[in-house]
Amino acid sequence: MDSAALQAYLNGPASTAPNGTVVDLDNPPRNNTSPLVLATVCIVLTTLAVVGRAYSRLFVVKRLQAEDYLGLLAFVGFVINIGYSLVLLFSKSAILLEWVNIFVPKGTRNTFYWSARVMMVANILLYTSSIIVALAGCQPLALFWDFWLSGHCINRKSRDTVNAAFNVVMDVIILLLPQLVIWNLHMTSTRKTGVCVVFSVGLIVIVTSVGRLVGIVTMDYPTSFAGVFDTPYQFSGELEWIIAEVTCVMLVFCVPALPRIISEPTIQLTARITQAWQSWTRLGRNSRASESQYSDDRKWDQVNLPHHVPRANAAIPKSQQRVHDEENLWMTNNDTETTVEVLELANTPDGTYPGYYHAEVHSDAAQKATKHPMEAGILKTIQFDQHDGDVS
């Protein structure tokens, strides 16, 4: 292209208007409401989900793992818009690592573990190759922006179509992985359904990734200077699918951690209120005799374990136990990881839980191994982790 033709092209419209389109360059229709609303909702949802997960990991679980840092990198990439492939590289790797930690007992190398590892490698290869091809797809590299130069570029539509198709397949596999495990757990159908719902946010990811694939297939990519294409207008719709997809991927990563921030703080607050009330009532006791009568003569009822804690055998293995002190008087049961916090569970002849605690009250060492209801004192607890019905 000579300099005169190039100048004429640069001074003119990018392309001839498609048939049936009225050109109005002075006051063009903006249609900005829909993308602005979508972008705002997506950023708010993603931010709330990430903050909720961060709170859960920092203040409830009090433990950070590799997937938490990958998720943070994905969120930063999403906010500053550094690249679709890079964000999904971090976020989907974080999801797979998270699900291995949830569904695979430590030291186990089962089918789920290897399937997740294979998907993790495929995820890294897919998005790394996408980044490399995007950066090296034109020779010379300047042909990306100085498109009038001599050289060649790979077919961008073919590249984007293959990338989007593999992306849909990966989303389907990642969605199905936990479902196969959940429906084999020893839980009621109602509870299984509830857990499946938590891990089914990926359905929305599949919808958005399919929408992106359809948009790529139907988009008019520019093929020559003389061709008629409407890529800038059509690509705005493609960007909406991309924003929605990345948002849903971040939700898939964050949502399973959110139930903890609903239950744990409330339980701990209730325990502290109970403790404060006990301390206040003890101030009114004027004699050792009255306290003894209160503690020894009062008939205590057996305290049943909460209905949502499974009645597992009390012969708990001693391996991989974490012993620590906590001001927590309750027992929590997650859908895939059960945390039982007690000092001691006494065995009945049939080897099951008797339905009450043997609690150690720090304020009075003489009351050790005395049967108390849930409202009594601060418990020194031992935490046992149970995965998929197996205690470890």
TrEMBL record:
<protein>
    <recommendedName>
        <fullName>Rhodopsin domain-containing protein</fullName>
    </recommendedName>
</protein>
<keyword id="KW-0812">Transmembrane</keyword>
<keyword id="KW-0472">Membrane</keyword>
<dbReference type="InterPro" id="IPR049326">
    <property type="entry name" value="Rhodopsin_dom_fungi"/>
</dbReference>
<dbReference type="GO" id="GO:0016020">
    <property type="term" value="C:membrane"/>
</dbReference>
<feature type="transmembrane region" description="Helical">
    <location>
        <begin position="164"/>
        <end position="183"/>
    </location>
</feature>
<feature type="transmembrane region" description="Helical">
    <location>
        <begin position="75"/>
        <end position="97"/>
    </location>
</feature>
<dbReference type="Pfam" id="PF20684">
    <property type="entry name" value="Fung_rhodopsin"/>
</dbReference>
<comment type="similarity">
    <text>Belongs to the SAT4 family.</text>
</comment>
<feature type="transmembrane region" description="Helical">
    <location>
        <begin position="195"/>
        <end position="219"/>
    </location>
</feature>
<keyword id="KW-1133">Transmembrane helix</keyword>
<feature type="domain" description="Rhodopsin">
    <location>
        <begin position="51"/>
        <end position="262"/>
    </location>
</feature>
<feature type="transmembrane region" description="Helical">
    <location>
        <begin position="118"/>
        <end position="144"/>
    </location>
</feature>
<feature type="transmembrane region" description="Helical">
    <location>
        <begin position="239"/>
        <end position="258"/>
    </location>
</feature>
<dbReference type="InterPro" id="IPR052337">
    <property type="entry name" value="SAT4-like"/>
</dbReference>
<feature type="transmembrane region" description="Helical">
    <location>
        <begin position="36"/>
        <end position="55"/>
    </location>
</feature>
